[in-house]
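User: Structure tokens for this complex, please. No commentary.
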Amino acid sequence: MNFKHKYFFLFPGLFVLIGILIFPIIFVVRLSLSGWNSYNPGLDFIGLDNYIRLFTDDPRFWESFFRLSFLSVTTVVLQYVIGFALAHMVWKDIKFKRFFRVLFLVPMMTTPVIMTVIWRTFFHESLGPVNDILSNFGFSPKWLTDPALAKLTVIIVEVWQWTPFMFLLLLAGLLSLPKEPFLAAAIDGASPVRKFIYVTFPLMAPISIGAIIIRLIEASKIMDTVYVLTSGGPGTSTETSSFYIFIKGLREFQMGYAASMSFTYLIIMIISLTIIAKVLTKLLLKE
Amino acid sequence: MKNCLTAIISSLMIFSPMAYADKWSDQFPHIKATGDIPGDCSYEKMSKKNYKGKTLKINTHAVPVMGEPTALHAEQFEKLTGATVEVTHTPAGDLYSKAMVPFQAGQAPYDVVFGFSNFINDWKRYLAPVPKKYMKSKEMKDVTKSHVGVSSWDGTMYQYPVDGDRHYLKYRKDVIDNPEYQKQYKEATGKELRVPQTWKEYAEMAKYFNGWDWDGDGELEYGSAEVMKKDDLMFAAFFSRSVAYAKNPRTPGGFFFDLETMKPNINNPGFVEALTDWVEATKYVPPGGTNFGLGDEIGSFGGGQTLFSFSWDDAFIAAMQDDSPIKNKVGAAPLPGADKVWNRNTNSWENQYNQAPYIVWGWAVGVAKKSKVQEMAFDYLCFFSNGANHQADLAIGRFGVNPFKNSDFDPNIYINSMGWDPEIANSYTKTLLDMEKSKNRVFPLRVPGVFEFTSAVATGTSKALAGQLSPQEALDEVAKEWEAIVSRVGKKAVQSAYAVGVKMEDNKL
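Assistant:
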């Protein structure tokens, strides 16, 4: 029997896949092998020059990458802990359960840039309400101008904005859990803490891994918060990879070099997220 | 008798300039202070054009700075000519790429593109030169020589002048001229309280007036508001602080580079001294001041929070607006100088007073070479900066339109139509005019890949301000990066472009 006609039916899907997924990546790779910039537009071929520059003469990129790793891991861990706690709270039969479920989702539904502008106003060191209140107790933290506190401010804003997403995924997970293990634990007289450690948490492990990976992918692209809050400052203390790539690509218009950074970054992220997923699976699904 | 009176009044209305002005200011209240001012692109002249059925597309800055006057004049232009004008607003950081990406792809989604005057080298090949008709217009003849130079490349004008920018010092006149404070300052420091002549004096006064309520409004005031936020025009603030130490009138041939060798001057002791001063300045800015962008600086000084500020006109104009709490309490003066200036030929300090104005880049606008409505686009730009619009725009700080015409240096404009104190108006216009006359000016860097150079300065200086590197280390890093950029772009390409700017600085153009 001739099955060649099956390719005809596959073609539309493949065409869309190539068009929207493969072509942009191929174009980025091609762009990364060119010296396209403001004074030399066009896809000339300069070989691996951009990659050599990136690996041998650009410590700022690697610094921004390690900073990003710190920020994304910290924010995602916090989002997971807080998101799980909130989801667990409204999973139970509490008063105004529906109200709280909607309320916890509000930050995620706001526009990140607008909310970051508002946070920036809150944390403004001379005009913002946060220091206005804290100054009554003798504190005036330098939220945006001290390198360590600026990182903390970025973390606060990110956690506030994206914990609801974690909450949503984990709540959906909790609502889908089977009731039998909990009934068995109740019959055995397990305390709420033991029930959480030995029943809820293990049952939630697959969903937790998915939620953490999704958030890590998103958090690794952190850009708008940094752009609005600190512009990567003070100095380069809050500069992340995506913000640095943005500066090189769209501020300095080094398109070829920015493409080489983007592609390198993509490869690193694929490798590191695969490792993280495997490690999490091993840790959380060991039984 | 009644008919006779009506005829006399009607004649007066037709032939008197005031009545002529009223005809347009009734319809367009923006120009109510002056009415229409005759010229080649006046309201009267534009009303005779017919662009019905044609569409003009403009990419400009976000509202209000430059974005608001662009939209306002677009609306007026539509009413006068019947054209349709579509205005897109873009954040400052994206203006370059939003025009550059389609330019490089051979497209012209916008007929008119707003940006900054230092884009000129990268943009000029995609822009239409300003036609002779407009070069000969009454409005253009009024533009100062330095701003014709800033808008042109080697004699050809690519950017239509709509704004004039320079950095100068703004200070609280009610403090500096206050006899009680002068006495108090003398007792405390042994020095005169006066308009600072050097950056060291500036620092001493700013420190003294930092962190206490010296204007009795119940709020703490501070020494200085400056643009220190990374990548938010901070490089321009750094150059303002550097010119006094590093622009030596006896060493022509380049402020940023040595034109002959293209070796960067950016890490020589003159620049290092300026950066050392700037790091010290972090001690006398308001809380959070090291994260101030231009908007914060305008709000801080314009709102009465600091004694000093220096950068573009906007903070001064904001302070002098009718709704300002410090209207007529501020003064304008040249940028402070220094008691020594670096001589890069002898590699030594010259211990003599030096001051140099910084004719910084500002708003600029061009017409895309591929635009199909070039004449309409130039008419719009000419209308934008006609006499009446320009004078009205000057009075509104948030518009970001600053003096660039010879007629702007008449103090009566500010006294009569804006209610400025005559002494302040005189000092303001004198400060600006003296910068035009100076023979020791610094012009903005306008070389291929200019953003790479300025971005390197922003990164290096911000590391010094944050304490990540010492001033010398930070500027050594910048110099290394500049050398790498020159090498990537090509030494000859940067050198030939830089030579055009050096000619202006060395008063040869």
